[in-house]
Amino acid sequence: MNSKDRILNFVKCSISGIGFISAFYTVINLMIFLSDPSNNRSVGYFRRGEPITDCFWMLLVDMVLLALFIIQHSILASGKVKSWFENYGILDLYRSFYIITTSLVLQILFTNWLSIGEVTLWKLNLTNKPVWFTYYATHILAWIFIYVGNICMDINELLGIKQVFYSIKNLPGPDTRKSQELKKLCSHINHPSFTAFMILFWMTSVMSLDRLILAVIFTVYLLVGCKTDQGDYAYHKSQYSLKCQELRYLKS
Asked: What pTM value is reported for the model?
């Protein structure tokens, strides 16, 4: 391996490492943003005019932030962007770039999000122990499902680490080892933990106006992006049956 290849591999590993660190940091902030009750507070921006005008501008800021996230996700997920990376011979860095830009956009959203605590649909009394236990147990289980779902979908590939490793080792990309059924299933879902995120969006201690907008928009976005059909269901069912057979064989 010559010096040029070493430098190129070092750059690839660095970008992959940045993607991994940014993903880890962003997920922690996402947990706080969606599940921490103390995060549901009124920030106090635009408190200079009429209440209705203030509310309008705060909602406008939040919707722009949500639009920024959706636009970034939609553009990066398009076939044209993937083709651009492939044409320039850096397809192995596509997933890392996707992770880094997603983390950046989410950090912008977390930092600039404006909560409207004055307008609420409901507010849970978390000082009540049964309510407190139900709230935190539900959120903990939802996050466990999300982590397990990502691990089952191959977390190293989702973070872009496997693509870079295979490239450095001059191995075919991870996609070449997947069946057509699995590729089709992956292209029809935009996240492996759809139900868990629905719970996190709607099971909130304070359903303020801004949180309602967030829940509605992300719910619609995930529903539009979910295109599973009967073939995907049949494939998923067959894989589940095979896993059960393997477990029974190992226990025998």
From this structure: 0.83
